[in-house]
């Protein structure tokens, strides 16, 4: 095998098919994954699922061939969202592998791997070992058998488990526009939200890995335009946009205005704290500072961590946190094996809206306290040099605090702050800015972008 470091990132596999990786690479990664879970004494079977991309089925089948070649069985859950794979891993108590490139364009694909119980596998917790073994593609151990491949439909069980966590049966009737972006939300939403007091207005539920309508990346405001228009057209109470593998959800209110993921994090955190079964809430360092403020106000203990699902899940396990949220609209639940699930987060928002009479804009206003830029991407030749220049421009100023937990975070004395970090999955530098008001946020955002893009 060639050097796999360009496609095996901090917490998953991601790259262009077939340019960066292909079925041979997937087969080698499957064999290495099987050896890893065997050597860990963890399991003798793994569960897989895949999204709707054209390359997902052949890649997942090649991976399964690698797995069974090492004497480990494969249970194929088939077509599913990433959080459905996490449900399968948790409920079946098996390591898992999900074939998806999430929100990336059609030519990309990837693998998200986990231990049994949906426990994360990142660079420091097994992914580096899997990469090393896959590159070597040779093993001293001789398996005493060839594994078997079987199929199991877990969609109904996934829906039942979500319903056991959030009861929507008694809410007031709501009109809900859902934009699946031709991704896996079109497969899971009709099953999970069926039979509830919800009128679903579907947008782009047809599974199509070429994404003919818009990219399945709701973090980009351009991809929310159709959802916003449909919410206004139908007089809907709420709009939901899922990304390609439906592990993330974005929310728009009855006016078609986006509800920030930080506001959703705070809303769901308050609901989880109200259960009285824990006080720790995880938030990554790019979420609004309103999140830790609100968590403390409701008797919780906020814990700040770096960006990325494997880091969030590890911190949740360490602290026994009940919930975690990220600025990118990943939401993690202790009751869901500490895994991220856009569907469960959406159900919490629907419950919060449907259990009272106010419109969503009024409900979420209390959770939105500051002006934020959203995530702005820039392509630069040398990310570390650029971040160094920005750091030097701010670090010596009075009252400025700098930390490098994840990229560069700069806290300014007037309450404004920004984070600049390199993407783990794409050749980009990402900027997030927050300030007490819109004018200050715009001024700071433009100053930093001027430096980054100079």
TrEMBL record:
Lineage, top-rank taxon, reads: Bacteria
InterPro entries for the chain = A-D-PHexomutase_a/b/a-I (IPR005844), A-D-PHexomutase_a/b/a-I/II/III (IPR016055), A-D-PHexomutase_a/b/a-II (IPR005845), A-D-PHexomutase_a/b/a-III (IPR005846), A-D-PHexomutase_C (IPR005843), A-D-PHexomutase_C_sf (IPR036900), Alpha-D-phosphohexomutase_SF (IPR005841)
The record places domain Alpha-D-phosphohexomutase C-terminal at: 375-449
Reply yes or no: does the keyword Protease apply: no
> What are the record keywords, sorted?
Isomerase, Magnesium, Metal-binding, Phosphoprotein
Name the GO terms of the biological process aspect: carbohydrate metabolic process
* Required co-factors: Mg(2+)
- Residue limits of the Alpha-D-phosphohexomutase alpha/beta/alpha domain? 8-131, 157-256, 265-370
Any one GO molecular function term? intramolecular phosphotransferase activity
Please name the Pfam families in this protein's record.
PGM_PMM_I, PGM_PMM_II, PGM_PMM_III, PGM_PMM_IV
NCBIfam families, A to Z = PRK09542.1
Cited PANTHER family:
PHOSPHOMANNOMUTASE
- Record's family? Belongs to the phosphohexose mutase family.
Protein name, per record: Phosphomannomutase
The organism named in the record is Blastococcus colisei
């Amino acid at each position: 095998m060639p050097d796999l470091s360009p496609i095996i990132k901090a917490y998953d596999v991601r790259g262009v098919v077939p340019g960066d990786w292909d079925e041979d690479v997937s087969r080698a990664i499957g064999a290495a994954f099987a050896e890893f879970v065997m050597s860990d004494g963890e399991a003798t079977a793994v569960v897989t699922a895949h999204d709707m991309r054209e390359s997902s089925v052949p890649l997942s089948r090649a991976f399964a061939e690698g797995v069974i070649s090492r004497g480990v069985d494969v249970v194929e859950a088939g077509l599913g969202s990433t959080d459905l794979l996490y449900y399968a891993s948790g409920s079946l108590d098996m390591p898992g592998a999900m074939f998806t490139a999430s929100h990336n364009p059609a030519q990309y694909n990837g693998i998200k791997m986990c231990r049994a119980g949906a426990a994360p596998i990142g660079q420091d917790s097994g992914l580096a070992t899997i990469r090393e073994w896959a590159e070597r593609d040779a093993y001293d151990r001789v398996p005493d058998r060839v594994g078997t491949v079987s199929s199991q439909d877990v969609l109904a069980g996934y829906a039942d488990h979500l319903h056991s966590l959030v009861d929507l049966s008694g809410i007031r009737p709501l009109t809900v526009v859902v934009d699946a972006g031709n991704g896996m939300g079109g497969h899971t939403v009709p099953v999970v939200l069926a039979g509830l007091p919800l009128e679903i207005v579907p947008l782009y539920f047809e599974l199509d890995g070429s994404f003919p309508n818009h990219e399945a990346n709701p973090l980009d405001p351009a991809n929310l335009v159709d959802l916003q228009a449909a919410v206004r057209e139908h007089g809907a109470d709420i709009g939901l946009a899922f990304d390609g593998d439906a592990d993330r959800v974005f929310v728009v209110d009855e006016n078609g205005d986006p509800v920030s993921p930080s506001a959703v994090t705070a809303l769901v955190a308050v609901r989880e704290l109200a259960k009285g079964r824990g006080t720790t809430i995880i938030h990554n360092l790019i979420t609004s500072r309103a999140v830790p403020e609100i968590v403390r106000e409701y008797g919780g203990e906020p814990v700040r961590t770096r960006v990325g699902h494997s880091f969030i899940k590890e911190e949740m396990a360490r602290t026994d946190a009940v919930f975690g949220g990220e600025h990118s609209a990943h939401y993690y639940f202790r009751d869901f094996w500490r895994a991220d699930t856009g569907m469960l987060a959406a159900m919490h928002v629907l419950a919060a809206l449907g259990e009272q009479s106010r419109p969503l804009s009024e409900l979420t206003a209390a959770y939105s306290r500051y002006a934020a830029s959203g995530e702005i991407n820039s392509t630069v030749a040398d990310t570390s040099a650029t971040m160094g220049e920005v750091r030097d421009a701010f670090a010596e100023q009075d009252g400025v605090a700098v930390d490098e937990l994840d990229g560069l975070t700069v806290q300014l004395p007037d309450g404004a702050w920004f984070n600049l970090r390199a993407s783990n999955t794409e050749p980009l530098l990402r900027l997030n800015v927050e300030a007490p008001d819109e004018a200050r946020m715009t001024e700071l955002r433009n100053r930093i972008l001027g430096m980054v893009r100079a």
